[in-house]
Amino acid sequence: MKEIEHRAAELISWVEDIKDKNGSSAGALFILKDNHVVVEHYSGRHSHEKDARNVQADSQFNVASARKSYLGLAVSFALYDNYIESLDEPISKYMPELDPKMVIGTTIRHLATHSHGLHIDEKGNWYREFEAGTGWAYRNIGVEILTELIQRLYRKGFPQLLEERIFSRIGLKETGWRTEPSASLVNIIGDVTEPSLSGLGTSNDGKEKNLFVSAREFALWGQLHLQKGRMNGEQVVPPQVIDLSTSIQNGVYHDSSLPDNGLFWYVQGDARAKSEMGERVPPGSYQILGVTGPTLLVIPSLNVVVAKMYNKRYNYGGEDYLHYLREFSNKVADLFTDSQ
After folding, report:
1. Model's pTM, two decimal places?
2. Three-state DSSP string of 44-94
3. Cα 337 versus chain centre, distance
4. Domain spans of the chain?
5. What is the 8-class DSSP label of residue 222?
6. Which of 56, 167, 236, 239 could serve as 228's disulfide partner, Cβ 3.0–4.6 Å?
7. Is there a contact between 129 and 136 (Cβ–Cβ < 8 Å)?
8. What average pLDDT does this structure show over 246-250?
9. Predicted local distance difference test score (pLDDT) of residue 320
10. What is the distance between the alpha carbons of residues 87 and 304, in angstroms, rounded to a whole number?
11. Helix, strand or coil, per DSSP, at residue 289
């Protein structure tokens, strides 16, 4: 136990070092092992302003693109509920207004695994970077299309769907698409000389990047997946829904260095050079992150869930971001593998 505590202290020190190097005002680290809290760390303030609130257990961070894991589960629900027949159905079947020449050959699977090849230029025009299924590129257009798809299928946004089916059932109160100011919300930081941003949206339908989550509830979101949808003695989500979301769903790429994905989650199969998970992270692990620095890592083989939070846009900085993400996940894997 003392060895784990020592190694955990080193991990916290690493998290703090990155926070300071990149100018985040806030940081948090929350780790569950065997469904028990083994690390709970909070530091800094909600912004760089002198009177900003200190980061606490109920502080909610804007998780930016990590919200894709929530959308991914909604897509998995749509398949389970027979609203869609297969991930390999063309998106044009459900959204016929899309330019048929542009989306030809593009399936729901492609959209949920960043392998659709669609992009938008500075003037808002769609164009194709590569043939669907042949490559990988992190583009938000796939998220926008699938958000609209869920809205049409269920006649409600995916946040409302998840609130009804999951959040209310397991008692999540510090998770939501925020439209009103609150003392518990952590601001988004840019350069230290720039005013911070609230990160609030105008609606809670999931179409904006205004999902705020506390570190402890971010970890519970990971724990829900780790436990195959079972929480507090109840099967909240069918295990098939979880399995679909967190297993590799993309096809084989020409470039073997490209990362594998479940439904938006990065999934560890064979270690990939361009994956955000390091080579020492066990197969079957999965991770999601956002541009403001939040990272949720789930390692089923070690029964570990890690929620790490920051509030700085492009927190890891430029082209080095993969290095830092891989280093962190390797450190987590080492901590719990060596303690087995």
Report:
1. 0.96
2. EECCCCCCCCECCCCCEEECHHHHHHHHHHHHHHHHHCCCCCCCCCEHHHC
3. 24
4. 2-68+155-337
5. H
6. 239
7. no
8. 98
9. 75
10. 29
11. strand
